[in-house]
Amino acid sequence: MKLHELRTPVGARRGRKRRCRGIAAGQGKTGGFGTKGSGARSGRGGALYFEGGQLPLVNRLPLKRGFRNINRIEYSAVNVQSLRQFEAGTVVDPTVLADAGLVKKRNVPVKVLGWGELDRALTVKADRFSQSARGKIEAAGGKAELLVRSVGGLRVRG
């Protein structure tokens, strides 16, 4: 069998309605377009969104601009300043941050931001780091480690 020999099965496609071809066709006389009026005339349909003079639905809705990305990943932000509450040498990961109350939801990925100063060496494990946060953690003698985990079916890597 070759590509040009393929055919749709018999009965898979229905023929179009032949309107206005007599009463025997079942679509005779007005042909399903009703009697008189703009809907029965040639060029029927009118302008797009026209609702007979009523204010169209699209004009009645509030103005919405832009779009919401359905694949967007929400991060919980933690600043370097708030990491000062941990002792030097502590391994700080999302569960430790949640226990300390710095992160509200445990299943949301964490991003460490660089606001504030850090004066102790910590090993910080997070899903993302800003450049300034990474620099401040490493300048204090600590380590900034990226976590790779699945969030909402997506693999997140900083």
Report the C-alpha radius of gyration, rounded.
33 Å
Total E-strand runs: 8
User: What is the strand arrangement across the widest sheet?
Assistant: 1-3-5
- Based on Cα principal axes, name the global outline: elongated
Class per helix and strand makeup? alpha/beta
Distance between the termini: 51 Å
Q: Give the CATH level 1 class of the domain at 76-156.
A: Alpha Beta
Order of helices and strands: HEEHEEEHEEE
Helix content: 10-25%
What characterizes the major β-sheet? 3 strands, parallel
The name of the CATH topology of the domain at 76-156 is Ribosomal Protein L15, Chain: K, domain 2
The CATH architecture name of the domain at 76-156 reads: Ribosomal Protein L15, Chain: K, domain 2
Low-confidence stretches: none
Total number of helices: 3
What does this structure look like?
This protein has 158 residues and is an alpha/beta fold. The protein has a domain at 76-156: Ribosomal Protein L15, Chain: K, domain 2, CATH 3.100.10.10. The chain is 12% helix and 16% strand. The strands form three sheets. It has a three-stranded parallel sheet with strand order 1-3-5. A three-stranded parallel sheet has the order 2-4-6. The protein is elongated, with a radius of gyration of 33 Å. It starts with 56 loop residues before the first helix and ends with a strand. The mean pLDDT is 88.
